[in-house]
Write a structure and sequence with these properties.
Blueprint lengths: L15 H6 L7 E6 L13 H16 L6 E3 L22 H17 L4 E6 L5 H14 L4 E6 L13 H6 L5 H10 L11 E2 L22 H4 L6 E2 L5 H24 L5 H4 L7
Parallel strand pairs: 1-2, 1-3, 3-4
Antiparallel strand pairs: 5-6
Helix pairs in contact: 2-6, 2-8, 3-4, 6-8
C-alpha cells in the first residue's frame, strides 16, 4: 500500500500506540500528498498528478536524514479538476468537498498531537484551495503550522531541460510531466500517441494570460483539442530521471526547513492578544 513511499515513513503503517508514544510530536512533519484523477492527453494515464506527488515525496523521504521525523499520509488522489471534466475519465471534487476533506484530515492529526502538516499539491488547478485550508486551520488552531506547497515550486533544475516555449506554455501533459512518467511509470506511457499542442487562441499583445498575474478563467477544451498543453513528443526517460532527482532534492531541503520551523508569534512576545 505504500507505493513509492518508504514503508518506515508511511503513516498508516504505524499503530495507535506508536503514535501515542512518538516523541516531540509537535515537530514531526506529516505530509499529505494531493493529486488528481484527470485527463492528461491521449498518451498519459489519468493518475499523473497523484503519481508525481507520491513518487517525488517517496524519493525525498528516501534521501532525508533518518533523525528527521517525517511521515507520508496516503495520497489523496482526487482533486478539484473541473477544468478537465469535458474529457472522459476525469473525476473531480468540488472545492468545498476538497476543502472539507483536507480540514477534517488535518483536525484528526491535530487531535493526535501533531502540529506540522504539509499539503503537498501536484495539481495546478487547486493551489488556492490548499492556501485557504492552511490559513483557516492556522487561524482556528494558532499552534498548528500548515504549509500549502506546490510540488514543482521547490528549488530544482528542471527548467534547464525545457525550451523557453515549454516553460511558458507547457503546463499540462507536456515535456516535463511526460518525461517524469517515463521515469516513474514507464509502462503506463504510450509515446506513440504523444502529441505537441500548445494553448491556442490566447490573447495577443495583452496583459491577460492563462496563469500569470492577470489571468482569465478557462477550461481545457477552450485551449486544446487533445487535452495536451505542451510538447509531449520530445519527452525522454533520461530527462524524467534528472527532473525527479532534482525536485526530490528540493523537497529534502524543504522538509528540513519545516522540521526546524517555529511559527512567528509577535503578539505573544508583546504580552497581549489581538483579534483584529
Amino acid at each position: 500500500m505504500h507505493s513509492f513511499i518508504p514503508p518506515d515513513r508511511f503513516f498508516p503503517y504505524l499503530s495507535w500506540t506508536d503514535v501515542e508514544a512518538m516523541p516531540d510530536k509537535a515537530n514531526v512533519v506529516v505530509i499529505q500528498p494531493v493529486g488528481a484523477i484527470e485527463q492528461h492527453g491521449p498518451h498519459l494515464p489519468i493518475v499523473v498528478d497523484a503519481a508525481i506527488a507520491t513518487a517525488v515525496l517517496g524519493q525525498a523521504l528516501e534521501k532525508l536524514e533518518a533523525d528527521i521525523p517525517a511521515f507520508a499520509l496516503p495520497t489523496l488522489c482526487y482533486g478539484k479538476s473541473n477544468e478537465h471534466w469535458h474529457f472522459p475519465g476525469t473525476i473531480t471534487l468540488s472545492a468545498t468537498t476538497l476543502m472539507t476533506t483536507l480540514i477534517e484530515v488535518a483536525e484528526s492529526l491535530y487531535r493526535s498531537g501533531f502540529r506540522k502538516l504539509v499539503l503537498m499539491n501536484a495539481h495546478g488547478g487547486q493551489p488556492q484551495v490548499m492556501e485557504i485550508v492552511a490559513r483557516d486551520l492556522h487561524q482556528k488552531y494558532e499552534d498548528f503550522c500548515v504549509f500549502p506547497l506546490f510540488t514543482w515550486r521547490v528549488p530544482h533544475n528542471a527548467g534547464e531541460l525545457l525550451t523557453d516555449k515549454e516553460k511558458e506554455l507547457g503546463i499540462h501533459a507536456g515535456d516535463a510531466e511526460t518525461s517524469v512518467l517515463l521515469s516513474i511509470l514507464p509502462d503506463q506511457v504510450n509515446m506513440d500517441a504523444a502529441v505537441c499542442e500548445y494553448p491556442q487562441q490566447l490573447p495577443e499583445a495583452s496583459l491577460l494570460s492563462m496563469e500569470d498575474k492577470l489571468p482569465f478563467a478557462w477550461t481545457t477544451r477552450d485551449l486544446s483539442r487533445s487535452g495536451v498543453m505542451g510538447d509531449a513528443t520530445v519527452a525522454t526517460r533520461e530527462k524524467g530521471d534528472r527532473i525527479m532527482a532534482s525536485v526530490s532534492d528540493g523537497w529534502v531541503k524543504v522538509i528540513r526547513d519545516i522540521y526546524r520551523f517555529q511559527q512567528p508569534q509577535v503578539w505573544r512576545s508583546r504580552g497581549e492578544s489581538w483579534n483584529g
